[in-house]
Design goal:
This protein is of the alpha+beta class. 24% of the residues lie in helices and 20% in strands. The protein contains ten helices and 18 strands. Helix 2 crosses helix 5.
């Protein structure tokens, strides 16, 4: 057999493939049809990037507006037998907490060429039609972006109805209350429901690479024995996890196959792998906010799973401008903030510049205080307090 003919025969199937036209209009019906045919290829928003955190929480489907959560706190059912049954020894208390979901919309509009150029960099063989369905990738790509958006605000989103406008889009950070926001509102309420006095807050102080491991372990050990028996999670910023890793590596020698993974401990050391470390993304810079609870206590609600992986293309009137939109509802809440289930540390969710109230006898420069210059805060050079000047301390 002629070797040249053999080579051509092998390559022929590739040569017959149609090269992708990067600038051609995108067929809306083809997208709808491909999505129906390959629905199994689409992954829901809460299982994509946002899933890095949400897999450590408890999802509640079927929530269309709000739902009341509750957990029995305290109580006892056992006592010495005395020949009669007269009821519970001590009744527990159910403290209702409301999980409210709010609508979030997804919108995307761009030129077909820009979609396709992104596609061919992500999908091997993307220049040729007939391989991985471009139309399915298109929807999956938008869902991936939506999941990234959600991941970044799971703790810091704060619902603000004044941001609703019929003429402009508002950031997703105003769409619902995130877990961190919910906790911070309870800490700063006129009558706080989270505090060291109540027992669901632990004072770690400012953490450093020299003390973070000791402080976090002390926080976990401060919980009731009933909590320490459970599998729990400790949620903190990626920067704090890195700080903990530095502390860990400086203090302990890694031995292959023993203990946690080198460089990235998966569990809080000293908890017998009872407390898993969870990286939280999107927290403000320098945030040392830490949350210790169980996965079952970290609730998030949504309506239908299908809503979390549905984006519908529609005709924009311009064949060279492809548009699509989607909508889902989402919200977060804690089932309980009782000390037996929940604890935060005493650090702010968002570090801020707080006005100093007592300056007498202080050296503002040595104290590291700031003064305001326009909209910015700058370190002061004053060595003695100046009359009429407000000094600010950067408070973590």
């Amino acid at each position: 057999m002629d070797p040249q003919k053999t080579t051509n025969a092998v390559q022929a199937p590739l040569a017959t493939q149609t090269s992708m036209d990067l600038t051609a209009p995108i067929d809306i019906q083809a997208v709808i049809g491909a999505v129906k045919q390959h629905q199994d290829l689409l992954v829901a928003i809460d299982m994509l990037d946002a899933g890095e955190v949400l897999k450590h929480a408890y999802g509640i489907p079927g929530v269309t507006d709000s739902i009341t959560l509750g957990r029995v706190e305290g109580g006892a059912v056992s006592s010495m037998y005395n020949g009669v049954f007269i009821g519970r020894t001590a009744n527990g208390k159910v403290v209702p907490r409301t999980l409210t979901v709010r609508p979030i919309k997804i919108e995307e509009a761009d030129e077909p060429e820009r979609y396709r150029r992104t596609y061919i960099t992500e999908v091997r063989g993307g220049l040729y039609d007939g391989g991985h369905p471009f139309e399915v990738w298109l929807i999956a790509h938008v869902l991936q972006l939506a999941s990234q958006d959600l991941l970044n605000v799971l703790f810091t989103a704060e619902y603000d109805s004044t941001q609703i406008s019929g003429s402009a889009n508002s950031d997703i950070k105003y769409a619902f209350d995130g877990w961190g926001t919910i906790a911070w509102k309870e800490i700063t309420a006129a009558t706080p429901t989270i505090s060291t006095a109540i027992g669901n807050m632990f004072a770690t102080g400012v953490m450093t690479a020299q003390n973070i491991g000791d402080q976090l372990l002390a926080m976990w050990r401060s919980r009731p024995e009933t909590f320490r028996r459970k599998a729990s999670k400790i949620y903190m910023s990626a920067d704090l996890v890195d700080m903990y890793t530095d502390w860990y590596e400086a203090k302990y020698t890694f031995v292959a196959g023993v203990g946690d993974e080198e460089g990235h401990p998966l569990y809080l050391r000293g908890t017998n792998k009872k407390c898993e470390i969870v990286r939280v993304y999107g927290l403000p810079q320098d945030s040392q906010f830490v949350l210790l609870t169980t996965q079952q206590n970290m609730c998030y609600g949504f309506d239908k799973e299908s809503d979390l992986k549905t984006v519908k293309p529609f005709n924009s009137g311009n064949p060279y401008w492809f548009t699509m939109a989607g909508k889902y509802v989402f919200g977060t809440q804690f089932a309980s903030i009782h000390k037996s289930e929940f604890c935060v540390n005493d650090r702010r969710l968002a570090p801020d510049y707080i006005a100093v109230t007592t300056t007498t006898g202080k050296n503002p420069k040595n104290e590291g205080w700031y003064v305001k210059s326009g909209n910015d805060y700058v370190l002061t050079t004053d060595t003695t307090p100046q009359s009429g000047t407000t000094y600010y301390a950067y408070t973590i």
